[in-house]
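Following up on my earlier thread - several people asked me to post the actual chain instead of describing it. Fair enough. Here it is, all 836 residues.
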Amino acid sequence: MRLLLLVRAYQVYGHMKAKIDPLGLEKREIPDDLDPAFYGFSEADLDREFFLGVWRMSGFLSENRPVQTLRSILTRLEQAYSGSIGYEYMHIADRERCNWLRDRIETPTPTQYNSERREVILDRLIWSTQFENFLATKWTAAKRFGLEGGETLIPGMKEMFDRSADLGVESIVIGMSHRGRLNVLGNVVRKPLRQIFSEFSGGTKPVDEVGLYTGTGDVKYHLGTSYDRPTRGGKRIHLSLVANPSHLEAVDPVVIGKTRAKQYYSNDVDRTKNMGILIHGDGSFAGQGVVYETLHLSGLPNYTTGGTIHIVVNNQVAFTTDPQAGRSSQYCTDVAKALNAPIFHVNGDDVEAVVHACELAAEWRQTFHSDVVVDIVCYRRFGHNEIDEPSFTQPKMYKIIRNHPSSLEIYQKKLLETGQATKEDIDRIQSKVTSILNEEFLASKDYVPLKRDWLSAYWTGFKSPEQLSRIRNTGVKPEILKNVGKAITTLPETFKPHRAVKKIFADRYKMIETGEGVDWAVAEALAFATLLVEGNHVRLSGQDVERGTFSHRHSVVHDQETGERYCPLDHVMMNQNEEMFTVSNSSLSEFGVLGFELGYSMENPNSLVLWEAQFGDFSNGAQVIFDQFLSSGEAKWLRQTGLVVLLPHGYDGQGPEHSSSRLERFLQMSDDNPFVIPEMEPTLRNQIQTCNWQVVNVTTPANYFHVLRRQLHREFRKPLIAMAPKNLLRHKDCKSNLSEFDDVQGHPGFDKQGTRFKRLIKDQNDHSDLEEGIRRLVLCSGKVYYELDEKRKSVDGKDIAICRVEQLCPFPYDLIQRELKRYPNAEVVWHLIEVQ
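Reply from S.P.:
Thanks for posting it. Predicted structure:
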């Protein structure tokens, strides 16, 4: 029994003795549980034989020897648990998973590779090391956030991808920050080296097919790319590295969302063909809250991707902050234990151990479809960047680093000493790599970027801001409106909804039957349903979106007796794909979930992806996504998205909290130039294409319907910030007739161009083209219109005109000018936002 407890102690605490710090700086207190004397064993017991066959543990006695000496047992435990890899997995409650790992950890000699594999590993380590040396030689003063000290990441990732491909993975989405990114781009994702070198030399920005420069660009260690990479096993695997900003870890949920979208579009139901990989820093993994928000999505039905592999490039210092000042836990990876993820701490100087840990992570992910962490404990040979002086703050560490051999030097020495490689073998690989690097450097001088370097296949045919896109109608045939309207307002006969919900659906059915009094929720559902009928994917997520924060949407209803769920929008068509329409309450997260939906929307343009805040001011929690991705992603990285952000707002009796979506912030973040009126002639107008996003505050259900449909009915994609109302959801006057949704000429929504979103709604009174008797023209936006109109009626203000500016960005200069000419004698008053 005491021996059993000792074995169990190694399985639980063995990582505390593991030799995972290449610098030997970390002085960890080894638990007494790992000392045989703690259990009463002495030196005299070392050669005593123990019969273990009765209780043999999974994996431990794989040699099938029921009797072993204590010495041999301790030797095996040390090899398994206290070598170059420290395993943390005993916190996992699932016995099957623990046994699976135990089998692989305790099987003897787990990291022995044959000479052929070792040559591949050596080749990859040389590429990793030589790449950094080459950049350092050619661009001595450039920041590149090199991988020196963590070069084993590259062979580890390559072997992980090879193993993943063998196990059925066809596509991998990667997210990472700046440390080592250029090396990953060049050596793993296979971005052309000549392109990387061209960017270092200040090469030209990407061009579109008409030869115009597009985008403001970004620093080279933020850019992304994609590539179909051959694997060691003879397969091909698609890799895409997502462009990201300087905000560490902000890209994490974006990668997960993009991976989930890939799984949807490739019908990857068991989530084994598409995988996400995130590469973290040790300081940011422990410190950035979005890491936990992302981890916490991993098991949620509408957000899971079947497991993410997390690799931590653990430099043991965050810029200038030591670990003891940067986290309260022993390991930077401890947050992952909350998700029952196994964690492999591996010495970054031992390239074979890194490779083994990475392969094991790939096998875990494909077997159990859950997250796993590889913590590569390494160091930064230079400072935070190559210009920074690290010994200002870490003198002891950098004194050791100055005399510490590189992982390549260590591996070459090992192979030479054991006779597994000759100096000629090493020189041959070194010469080959140097020759290719020099050839690519010469080719970089004439390198011209191509559009295909930037845009993926799904987006073929979509237009850049320089290419004029025609305006399309968004009206729908009356018969289609009626058919889908009945489908989304009818519940099964056997279904027993709450009596209030039953009445809501009866009222909705009546709206469709009569064609009158269509409210906000029905207009939204009609927009979703008609897009589904046209073959588009619709996904709505956020806090409480299924019912709706204000109990208005009811996109999912619940049987009051059985608890069964029913979603009417899943039954718009016969044999409808159950994921074609997805509506899902999210975890109580803004940053993580909005990032997820952004990533989802970027994968395929033929989808309407919406995120709704519980209240509009909750968007504060996701400000990094708005600032760094949504408002600027197209300008920086030429990545379009049609993501819709719904922000419920308005005082409505709730005081200072939940009072505003901060509309002014989104207008401040728009790049619409207030001092220049752009070309507004309809056939030449590309105002909305050149603007970074759209901000609307609409006042009618019909206009909401059209602005949602407009997102997909054009040849480009642009984010939409929609100030979603609260008191308009049930306002007696905020109703539309079904005729405003159709495409029949002569109906209320139809003008000479057709039925579409109205950027401005003119005064509801039937004013002529010239009204000289109007003394005041009030321009307003959103729900305040109804309050103003009610006041006008109460004072009989026939000499006052009220126009609704439905789209605030980009600003409808042409329509405003039309109204100013209509009322030449009017004082113009702006009343765009509620008084607060």
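The longest helix spans residues 115-138. That should answer part of your original question.
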